[in-house]
Amino acid sequence: MVAALNEVKDRVRGLEVGADYFLTKLVNDVASFARIRSLVRLKRANEGDYDLLLVSDGNWSQDALRLCSQLRSGPETQRRPILIMVPDSEDDRLAKALELGVNNYLVRPIERDELISRSRT
Question: 33: burial class by Cβ within 10 Å (0-12, 13-18, 19+)?
Fold first, then answer.
């Protein structure tokens, strides 16, 4: 429990000093490449003052992924950052969300400071 708390604090510290992303464990290639493409999309779209679109998917229904896809394709929301909150150990679905245009994610249980830091970045 203490190690997990320290890991979250390190992640938050890294995001607060300007990191775009912070790896805490090795991830599979599909998730890694999806994350890189997502970061590139965010850097291209991050011009101006944008709102953050926060999507929560408690049971990983197709509706949340469909919503992310629709948000990314809509003219008013296509360039706005999307942050999705996901259950732990759903790497394949998380990779799909990133492929659909989600810019960042939080794994449940959500840590308040990490939510604030990821929202700012």
Answer: middle
